[in-house]
Amino acid sequence: MNVASLAGLDDATITALAAAGVERLRTEAASPYLLIAEHAGNLVPAPWHDLGLAMPYLGTHFAVDIGVDALTRRLSQTLRAPAVVAHYSRLFLDYNRPAGEWDFMRPDLGGIPVSGNLAPDATDRRLRTRIAWEPVEQAIIEAAAGRQALISIHSFTPVMGGVRRNVDIGVLWREPSPFVTSVLKTLGAQGAEAGLRIGDNEPYDWRQAVGYTLNRHGLEQGRPCLYLEVRNDLLSDPETFELVSRTLEGAFATVAMSLWPKPAIAV
């Protein structure tokens, strides 16, 4: 990056870029859930010139969780639940990673260098934190207050390292809770009826992985939480998107009515 041009950004520009980086949906909803989509967007703020990448790379799974923006908006609407949706690409800054992790500002795409991330200096890191990290952090803190459970929504590729993954929707958890148990049981049953394979800590095992968002805002605050992973090709086809959405809506509505009937919404 051009250090001089970044250092020259004025406060008004920085404030505008920060405001553009996060969106809050249904902030006044009474749902027990807060939905979080840290990887929903693939935007890079203009002063960073797409991190030196050709535009097609910003449409890949390296840059964005494909289908998650639409899925989060659908679930927020039908479950009448608040949601925090991040707009900036995880290549610009990955909110779901601790700042010390190598992929907090990922330097490569499976061997293809991300030139804008190869050597970010202190000014660059400070500005990215102000623009892409602090607004999401504040939005989640405010939206999580009073919620019974947090759901972080992600998507995954159907093939990894040449191996096809044998799940359609994954429920990732680190600490057991009545919420996690109920989701696994309910989504497992309703998913099977819909012909969907539900994974228990698959295709990733959160107990073996880093997950900043729900560690920080879920477990450390004593809130039940889970990461929801959906196979991204299912979200790219309208028919299977509808199937996945209806299945998740039914399962999470059932769980809410069972555990927290007063504020829950039946769909």
From TrEMBL:
Top-level taxon in the UniProt lineage: Bacteria
InterPro entries in alphabetical order: N-FG_amidohydro (IPR007709), UCP029730 (IPR011227)
Gene3D superfamilies: Zn-dependent exopeptidases
SUPFAM superfamilies: Zn-dependent exopeptidases
Pfam families on file: FGase
Protein name, UniProt field: N-formylglutamate amidohydrolase
Organism from which the protein derives: Mesorhizobium qingshengii
